[in-house]
Amino acid sequence: MSFKGFTKHDFNAFQIEGLDARMEAIQDRIQPKFATISEDIKSDLKILAGNEMYLHIARHARRTKNPPVDTWMAFSHNKRGYKMHPHFQIGLFDDHVFVWLAYIYELPGKPQMASLLLDHMNELQTTIPDSYWISTDHTKKTASQPITEIELDKVLTRFRDVKKGEFLVGRHFTSDDPLLQDGKHFIQEVKKTFETLMPFYHLSLQATK
Q: Strands of 167-174's sheet, edge to edge?
């Protein structure tokens, strides 16, 4: 089965009140689509990464009261988890889909990875298209900005020096973007995004060697 796209019904899951009810909607509406997307892209991602990339679907298991404001799938070379490694994400807030190469605060070796990225900042700036976005906090959609509106050196320096600092780079697709309703086209854009970001994924892994 191929991915058919995201719909308003999917985004409306985040309007449902209550943890249990919203989680049920996420599990019924969105998580099966994540599994289908994985089937469509995992072989290409494995080739790009040069190793197996394992799917992790957010379970939001630690939540006991507040319902999640977003949900995501992640791909990591580690079968047991992804938060401790650079990883790729596809997910939804209530008003957009995000496609990230993600470095979040739980990452060991964060200063070393940030320093490597700072050393290659010119390459980052010339390789990453102006249509891409940057986030400094994966939990807040307000932490995302177009790459043309940020000072990349300051973002990477904060990622290096601040314990909770994060760095996510990739694409935003608003919920009303017709592309999201065209599963084949969306998958093509995801693959293109991961291909663009893959050199920086490989670069950052050098910090762990």
A: 54-57, 71-76, 87-92, 96-103, 167-174, 133-135, 144-146
Where residue 209 falls among pLDDT bands split at 50, 70, 90? low
pLDDT digits (tens, 9 = 90+) for 160-198: 999 999 999 999 999 999 999 999 999 999 999 999 999
Q: In whole angstroms, what is the distance from residue 60 CA to residue 40 CA?
A: 24
3 within some domain: no
The answer to whether residue 1 sits within a structural domain is no
- The residue type found at 27 is Q
The residue range of the domain holding 198 is 8-208
pLDDT in tens, 78-113: 999 999 999 999 999 999 999 999 999 888 889 999
Buried b (16+ CB within 10 A) or exposed e, 124-136: beeebeeebbbbb
Take residue 127 and report the two structure tokens written for it.
Answer: 């390789």
**178 domain residue, yes or no:** yes
